[in-house]
Design a protein that fits this description.
Strand 2 and strand 3 form a beta hairpin. The protein is of the alpha+beta class. The strands form 3 sheets. The protein has a 4-stranded antiparallel β-sheet. Strands 2-3-4-8 form a 4-stranded antiparallel β-sheet, covered by helices on one side. The protein has a two-stranded antiparallel ribbon with strand order 9-10. The protein has 6 helices and 10 strands. Helix 1 crosses helix 6, helix 3 crosses helix 6 and helix 5 packs across helix 6. It folds into 2 domains: 122 residues, Alpha-Beta Barrel (N-terminal domain of MutM-like DNA repair proteins), CATH 3.20.190; 124 residues, Helicase, Ruva Protein, domain 3 (Orthogonal Bundle), CATH 1.10.8.
């Protein structure tokens, strides 16, 4: 599943091609995504120009004069800039076509767990965004915040930082990596963390996400950038996907457990 760094990579990738461009039409080949695409999407988009491309958690927001196109990549979605003459493949569900352009914006989603939604009002008040926690790379996500909201919570620390109501967008790959770098066992109760540990964890979450964004995200299966290229962060993963291999710090064989049905790889010596 594309996580925050992958979505941010896509956001940055499409900006030069879509900002201030006038939309001529939208071609919808498949409306049955996680939530059905409105039949009037083409009418809503026609003649508008893209003023801004933002991200909230794992959602992309293409802001226009009269509304916002809210996009989620789901499990296998891609949002790419492709030449106007490139024929659609089986899972290319939506094309956004720009007036007089030599390229278009194409949404692809083999599993159809993604979303392409039109929002007339404030997109941040949409039901999918309204209850999201702070952005992990923002100033409001800090040690004091994490310490405050973890008090009295008998939840495993990995599950806690992956809760989008606590912090928006820390997915499984990056939770594994951040906990390893912070030296915190993923199965610890979050209310056992002291303020210093919260500071260390917040710092490593930000560090890992920034590094992943700079590497263009992580490509494990379906993800590609807006230009159709893979991300490269998987080449420097320290624990995720390395179960049975030696720890890069101490040489101990990395172990795996399941937390909330997700693979969790850790070092029994370096994380406590």
């Amino acid at each position: 599943m594309p996580e925050l760094p992958e979505v941010e990579t896509v956001r940055r990738g499409i900006i030069p091609s879509v900002i201030d461009k006038v939309i001529e039409k939208a071609v919808v080949r498949e409306r049955r995504l996680r939530w059905p695409i409105t039949p009037v999407l083409g009418k809503k988009l026609c003649g508008q120009h893209v003023e801004q491309v933002d991200r909230r958690g794992k959602y992309l927001l293409l802001k226009m004069q009269k509304g916002t196109l809210l996009i989620h990549l789901g499990m296998s979605g891609q949002l790419r800039i492709v030449p106007s003459g490139q024929k659609p493949a089986k899972h290319d569900h939506v094309d956004i076509i720009f007036a007089g352009g030599s390229y278009l914006l194409r949404f692809t989603d083999p599993r159809r767990f993604g979303a392409v939604l039109w929002v007339d009002g404030d997109p941040l008040q949409h039901k999918l965004l309204a209850k999201l926690g702070p952005e992990p790379l923002g100033e409001s996500f800090n040690a004091a915040y994490l310490f405050k909201y973890s008090r009295g919570r008998k939840v495993l620390v990995k599950s806690f930082i992956m809760d989008s109501h606590i912090v928006a967008g820390v997915g499984n790959i990056y939770a594994n990596e951040a906990l390893f770098l912070a030296g915190i066992h993923p199965a610890r109760l979050v209310n056992s963390l002291n303020l210093g540990e919260c500071h260390k964890l917040v710092s490593t979450i930000k560090r890992v996400l920034k590094a992943a964004i700079n590497a263009g995200g992580t490509t494990l299966r379906d993800f590609v950038t807006a230009e159709g290229k893979p991300g490269y962060f998987q080449q420097v993963l320290l624990v995720y996907g390395r179960v049975g291999e030696p720890c890069v710090h101490c040489g101990t064989v990395l172990l795996e457990m399941r937390i909330a049905q997700r693979s969790t790889v850790y070092c029994s010596q370096c994380q406590n």
